[in-house]
Design a protein that fits this description.
The complex is a heterodimer of chains A (285) and B (283). Chain A is 81% helix and 0% strand. Chain A has helices at residues 2-18, 24-48, 54-62, 65-98, 104-110, 113-116, 119-130, 135-142, 151-176, 179-187, 192-221, 224-230, 240-249, 253-284. The two termini of chain A are 31 Å apart. Chain B is built from 13 helices and no strands. Classes of the chains: A mainly alpha (285), B mainly alpha (283).
Chain lengths: 285, 283
């Protein structure tokens, strides 16, 4: 009883303390107003739009071979890019956290390049690099591989754009992992690889999955860095965001909105998954 | 033999060498090569043509428009970020977690969708389109649309930097100031702001970089009128599609330089003011 009373008392304390600081109504009011005007109302306009033609109309707009192919390409390549980046992101994070070497600060700073570099700049650079006459493209062409203007170009751009997520989510967690468990594993006779694979890696799993989910979300929606290198052949190398732009140019607002709603729904699912991952990680700590 | 000198938590030499080589190789291939190529292509004809391309009338118009859009969008999102962080960090109210999730939402929305939503609100087939046309107000394919799209994609930057920072710092100092008779504005200016200034600067820096570089969202609402509604990234696209590679890469190099300055400042803030940034940047 007294415990409840104490808790209640401290809650009342909180409530009373709230009045000490001014600006609650103003700051929260402005926050909600701005959020509603800039984000929520426009998103509502998007969500309602395709259903003006009813559920059947929405379905008709989505279930065309061209739209389905674009969605498959965007989601499939985004998943592949997220997995590839997670592997290399883990290795890069490991090297940055565990090894000491000159120029480490510079290497660390470079990781965020895809965040800072405008996507159009990345797009024309990657396109020129992988074109048959480009630095990498010429070498690939000699070996009979085409990347630019094929679906593989989409993958290359996605790998570039989402790399920082996979490094930056693992890095701080890895830095905090105690060395004592690794020492214990080594003392008990585990080889170094066994220690990494069966002791360290499982501890990092939530962070790795979080990075993978963020990389996936970013890649699915990416536009600027992809359209230059992809070739944009309908049903072959045309990504879903580009198809939205194409439909807008043809004044097919409902069709554009229908694809937009599918992508927005995917964003929501990813957001929920990320929140789930975070509470899972918090529980494990 | 070497195992004897190895600490149990240290990787054997071959593993170190392997991981180090993979890291360097991957970063060089994926990140550095494209960056180098931008500067190389811009300067392939020497500094002269590149400079001419940047100082050409339409390029300067694009530069001006980009700066203008950022100069409106960044302060707006900064005020919002401060207000949101103040509300979330200093007070208790139901639905706080949900609010923070909503603030983060624009980050997970595709840039193209971010532009599309405004077309659906302000476009001719949109909610307010016919009314706006009737009153001769132009939002789409003009500065307001470009600013709105920029505000949307840079929406969370300042807020998500300040919220964890201010939640971490608690309310004690502000409450002491208020108890001693400081007004709300004085409390913020003299107590809160000095505590958050580097975090605030960090958020503004990232917000500004994204605002100047945004492509997809602005592309949807801009209308692509050369010299009028083309921002710098859109101008890069236009030049590139017109086979003016030196021009495209010259403007791109300018944007890349800006990105490098942003990265340098960001790294400096992380290194120098680590304790005064949100916990997620202290690595």
């Amino acid at each position: 009883m007294s415990a409840i009373g104490l808790k209640f008392g401290s809650n009342r304390g909180l409530l009373r303390r709230r009045r000490v600081l001014p600006g609650f109504g103003l700051s929260l009011g402005f926050t909600l107003l701005y959020l509603t005007g800039i984000v929520l109302i426009p998103l509502l306009a998007l969500t309602l739009r395709p259903f003006e033609l009813g559920l059947a109309g929405f379905w008709d707009a989505i279930a065309t071979p061209r739209v389905l192919a674009a969605l498959r390409l965007s989601f499939g390549m985004a998943l592949a890019a997220a997995v590839i980046d997670s592997v290399f992101g883990f290795i890069i994070a490991w090297v940055l956290v565990r090894y000491r070497f000159p120029g480490k600060g510079l290497l660390d700073a470079v990781i965020d390049l895809p965040f800072a570099l405008p996507t159009a700049v990345a797009g024309i650079a990657l396109s020129t690099l992988y074109a048959p006459s480009g630095w990498i493209g010429a070498w690939l062409t000699e070996h009979g591989i085409r990347v630019a203007y094929t679906p593989w170009g989409v993958l290359v751009a996605m790998i570039f754009i989402s790399l920082p997520f996979t490094v930056r989510t693992v890095q701080p967690v890895l830095a905090e992992v105690g060395r004592d468990v690794e020492e214990a594993a080594a003392t008990l006779g585990a080889t170094r690889l066994q220690t990494i694979g069966r002791v360290v890696l499982p501890m990092l799993l939530p962070a790795i999955l979080t990075g993978m989910a963020m990389a996936f979300a970013r890649s699915v929606g990416e536009y600027g860095s992809i359209i230059f290198i992809a070739g944009n052949l309908p049903a072959v190398s045309e990504i879903a965001p580009l198809l939205i732009v194409t439909k807008l140019e043809q004044f097919d607002y409902a069709g554009a909105a229908a694809i937009g709603v599918v992508m927005l729904a995917a964003s929501f699912v990813m957001l929920l998954a990320l929140n789930g991952l975070q509470s899972w990680a918090a529980k494990r700590r | 033999m070497s195992r004897k000198f190895l600490k149990p938590t240290e990787d054997p030499f071959w593993l170190k060498a392997l991981l180090f080589a993979v890291t360097l190789g991957f970063i060089a291939l994926v990140l550095l090569l494209p960056l180098m190529l931008v500067f190389r292509e811009a300067l392939v004809g020497g500094l002269g043509p590149a400079w001419d391309a940047i100082t050409e009338t339409d390029s300067l118009a694009a530069l001006r428009l980009s700066l203008l859009a950022a100069a409106i969008a960044v302060p707006l999102n900064t005020v919002f970020g401060i207000a949101a962080a103040w509300a979330v960090a200093k007070f208790d109210f139901p639905g706080k977690t949900f609010l923070v999730t909503l603030i983060d939402l624009p980050f997970s929305v595709s840039p193209v969708v971010s532009g599309l939503v405004y077309v659906l609100v302000f476009g001719m087939q949109g909610w307010f389109g016919p009314w706006l046309a009737g009153h001769d107000v132009r939002i789409l394919f003009a500065l307001p649309g470009i600013v709105l799209a920029t505000v949307f994609v840079t929406f969370p930057f300042v807020a998500r930097e300040l919220i964890p920072l201010m939640v971490d710092q608690g309310r004690d100092e502000e409450e002491a100031a208020a108890t001693l008779g400081a007004s709300g504005f004085q409390t913020f200016l003299r107590v809160t702001l000095p505590n958050i200034k580097w975090g605030l600067l960090y958020g503004i820096l990232l917000c500004n970089a994204r605002a100047l570089g945004e492509f997809g969202a602005v592309s949807v609402v801009s209308g692509h009128i050369r010299g009028q509604t083309n921002t710098m990234p859109l101008h890069v696209e236009l030049l590139y599609n017109n086979y003016d590679y030196i021009g495209a890469f010259a403007v791109a190099a300018l944007l890349a330089l800006l990105a490098l300055v942003t990265l340098a400042l960001k790294s400096f803030l992380e290194w120098r003011y680590a304790d005064e940034l949100a916990a997620s940047h202290r690595h």
